Amino acid sequence: MSSRFFTLPFKAKNIITNKEHNKCAIKESIAHFIHLITTAYFGECTFDETFGCSIWDVDFDNLSSTNKIKTLIADSLFDSLKRHEKRLTKIDIDVSIKQEEITATKTSNIVKKKVSIRITGKVRKTDEDFLYNEFFYIGPLSY
After folding, report:
1. Could you tell me the residue range of the domain that residue 84 belongs to?
2. Structural domains counted in the chain
3. Gap between the Cα atoms of 113 and 49, Å rounded
4. CATH (domain of 52)
């Protein structure tokens, strides 16, 4: 398959100055775009306030149940992907959340919520299976 899509990080200077920009295949491009959606908060892109997802809305939420947070993130991602990622069909999203202890220093550990995201679907143009996995720690968000 041809590599017609730009990679991340996007280097606008290369485009403006007619220099070559790194390119990638469609599956990698979709994965990059999903990463942009998951790491953007609603309203961050002033030209489209629907771009992003709700992970940021639950970043410090210690009161909601894990199931409620999972559902909120999954629904938000599904809506954003349906709206913005037209190259994917048959999208299915699985979100899991678990507590994880992380070493902060030699003498202390911190407990964070690990949000694991698994997205499957079909690439519209090629009808190939698509799989994307990513995880974040929330409270505060890091990846």
Report:
1. 5-138
2. 1
3. 27
4. 3.10.450.40
| Edge-to-edge strand ranges of the sheet holding 88-103 | 88-103, 109-123, 129-138
The answer to whether the Cα torsion of 93, 99, 101, 102 is positive or negative is: positive
Contact between 95 and 115 under an 8 Å Cβ cutoff? The reply is yes
pLDDT by residue for the chain (143 residues), tens digit each?
Answer: 456 877 777 777 777 788 777 788 899 999 999 999 998 988 888 888 999 998 888 877 776 788 888 999 999 999 999 999 999 999 999 999 998 888 777 788 887 888 999 999 999 999 999 999 999 888 765 55
